[in-house]
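Blinded run. Sample ID left blank on purpose so nobody reads anything into the name before looking at the predicted structure. Input follows.
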Amino acid sequence: MSFSRYSTDSVSSATESSSTLHSTVSSASSATVLDDHSFPSKPSWIDLVKADTKLVDKSLVIDPVLNSHHHVVVALAHRGSGKSTFLSMLAEFLAMHSKHSIETRLECFSKCDLFTKRHPFFNKHFAKCPVIHLDFSQHGSRTYEDALKHFRTSVCRATRDLVNLLPSFLDTPADKNGRVGLYISAKAMKSHIEHVTMLFTDLDKGEGGRVEANALVTGLMEVLDKCLGGQQSVVLIDEFETPIANIMCEPGIPQGVREDIVLMYSSFYTAVFKNNDCLSFGLL
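Blinded prediction complete.
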C-alpha cells in the first residue's frame, strides 16, 4: 500500500432543553430506515482481532500517516492489500468515541508493534479525536435514487454515534459568561446541536439529498470542534473511488444520471476536504 499526499487545494436555556434533545437523538438512533441488511457493514478490525483472524500487523504505518503534514492523504492500494482493515484499525486507534470500550481496544492494540515499539507515540494519539469513518465499497447503482440511498446510508452509519454523543455537551456546566469550552456559548451550542440532529434525523428517514448530507458531516465536524475546544475531526473513506468507477463502467446509464451521481460524490469530497478548518486530516 503506497501513499500519495495532497494539499486541500487539490481536492475538488441549554440545560432546560437537554432532556428534549436527548429524546430527539435517541429516536433518531433507533430509526434505521436506511440501514437494512441488503447493505451490510464490514467487520471491524476489532471484530477480526477478537475472532483471532490472521492479520498482517500494519500498525507502524500509522506514524507516517499522522506525520505526513498534509490535510488529505490518498492511499493507493490494490484489492486484497488490507487497506480496508488498516482504515478500520486507524479509526479504532484515533477515535475518542467507539462502540468498543477503551479496555477492549487497548487489549487488541497491545498485540501490535505500535503499542510495544512506539508506546509514547501510542499514548499521545490513542483515542484523542472524533473520527468519521465512511465505507463506499458497496456503492454501485443504475439510478440516482439508489445511489443517493446508498450515500445517505453510509453517511448516517458514519455519523450516528457522534450525533448521539452531542446531547452530553449540553450537560457541561457553563462558565460565568455562559460559555462552554473555549469557543461557544451554551445557547449557540444548543442551536448548533439541534440543527445537526435535525439533518441526521431527516437523512435517516430517507429524506434530504446530497446538500443535506454534506451539511450533516461538515456541521457535525463544526459542532465537535466548538464543543471540544478546537478539536478537529479525522475523516476516513474506504474505497472513495468505487462509486464513480462503477457508474462510469456500467453500460446503459443515461449520461445525465452519471453526471448527477459523480456530482454527488465530488461535491461531498470538496465540502469535507477543501478549506475545512474543522478537518485534522483525511485518508482515502
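Unblinding after everyone has recorded impressions. DSSP finds 13 helices and seven strands in the chain.
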